[in-house]
Specification:
Layout (H helix, E strand, L loop, with lengths): L1 H44 L8 E5 L5 H10 L6 H10 L9 E5 L5 H10 L4 E6 L5 H10 L19 E6 L4 H21 L10 H14 L6 H14 L6 H9 L11 H5 L22 H8 L8 E4 L8 E4 L2 H49 L1
Antiparallel strand pairs: 1-2, 3-4, 5-6
Length: 374
């Protein structure tokens, strides 16, 4: 009986020892895990060694491992594996966004992860000026090195809204074109809805054509509504619009500057864009009109004028408007006089500059001669 009790006592003692061993291992594991967690947290959340702000690019299609590797190779973080563990612990491994980011100096890995998942990428912008043709717009976008994906087809003329468009590095050029087209359609629909009901045009496309003529005829914003009034008066009277930019577009299709004056043969040749021959709007837009030109076409000034001519040698000089041909002839004479005066002024300036350069050259030669003799 005593022997049996001793065996039971030994069994209990062994069980206690095993239990104590497991508890010791468990506590040790907790200490190690806690230490590891503390070490991880200390490194993941503490300030990094980045000495100055840097720009980091997350390339399209890059996964967490690639981003972490790039960050470490560029010296932005010290441990790519730790960065990946941190991202996975927060379930953010699939939330890193493509783009270009500004990483502030001394940023922790946690800061960087937040920037790449919640921050706003650096944005760029491209400006398509009013009066740019679709060909010119495509040329400008294709030349922008921050965009990707070449545009190979030209959008229809008068389908893009001139404006400044923000984008992120690596965005597709076609996406910018799509935005320009969407914005144009929205703006056109709104303006068409609020147009003057007495306009001699029947469709939104005709409004765009008229706006494109206004856009190319004046570079002076406050004149747009007056120019629109002249064109509408001519359309109502069945008169030819006689606008040079339309004839020029028929020759160049908006892909180049004519670089010379129009010839009489070109003014007499019947083409869908020659408004000296057809008593109506041209067949299509000759540029991409901006909001102001669209508004002017939709609500032109109420005027008796049916003529206008440039007031001087430069677009900024504006135009002279008239209601009769006799007044128009006087304005044409004033325009020619202004151009002649400007040409004479420029010629006098050139001659004065040449005389000044000749005088300076002579003085230099005389000084050099005096130095050589001395």
């Amino acid at each position: 009986m005593a022997k049996q009790k001793r065996k039971q006592k030994k069994r209990k003692s062994a069980l206690i020892e095993i239990t104590n061993g497991f508890l010791t291992l468990f506590i040790l594991a907790l200490i190690i895990a806690g230490g590891a967690f503390y070490w991880f947290a200390q490194n993941f959340y503490s300030d990094g060694n980045l000495k100055q702000d840097v720009v980091f690019v997350v390339k399209s299609g890059s996964g967490l491992a690639t981003v972490a590797k790039d960050l470490q190779e560029q010296g932005i973080i010290s441990n790519s594996l730790m960065f990946q563990l941190g991202a996975r612990s927060k379930n953010l491994e699939g939330s890193i966004k493509t783009g270009e980011y500004n990483i502030a100096k001394a940023s922790s890995m946690a800061d960087i992860l937040f920037e790449l998942t919640e921050g706003k990428p650096i944005s760029y912008s491209v400006t398509i000026p009013e009066g740019f043709t679709s060909w010119q717009a495509v040329q400008k976008l294709n030349a922008d090195k921050n965009l990707v994906g070449e545009i190979t087809s030209i959008p229809p003329e008068g389908s893009l809204l001139p404006d400044t468009y923000s984008y992120e590095r690596g965005e597709e050029r076609s996406a910018i074109i799509a935005r320009m087209s969407d914005e144009f359609n929205k703006e056109l629909a709104k303006i068409w809805e609020n147009r003057d009901p007495d306009l001699p045009i029947n469709t939104p496309q005709e409004l765009v054509i008229l706006a494109s003529l206004i856009e190319k005829e004046t570079g002076t914003p406050h004149e747009r509504f007056e120019v629109a009034g002249v064109f509408v008066n001519r359309l109502n009277k069945g008169m030819k619009l006689q606008t040079d930019p339309a004839v020029i577009y028929g020759i160049t299709l908006g892909k180049e500057k004519l670089g010379r004056g129009l010839r009489q043969s070109e003014l007499k040749k019947e083409t869908p864009y020659n408004t000296y021959v057809i008593p109506a709007l041209p067949i299509g837009p000759i540029t991409n009109p901006g909001r102001e030109s669209l508004l002017a076409a939709a609500n032109p000034a109420k005027t008796e004028n049916i003529f206008f001519v440039a007031a001087g040698a430069y677009p900024s000089d504006g135009h002279l408007f008239s209601a009769t041909y006799a007044e128009h002839r006087k304005n044409v004479a004033l325009y020619r006089k202004a151009v002649a005066q400007e040409e004479a002024r420029l010629k006098a300036e050139q001659e004065a500059q040449k005389a000044k350069e000749a005088q300076e050259s002579q003085e230099t030669q005389e000084a050099e001669k005096a130095n050589n003799n001395g």
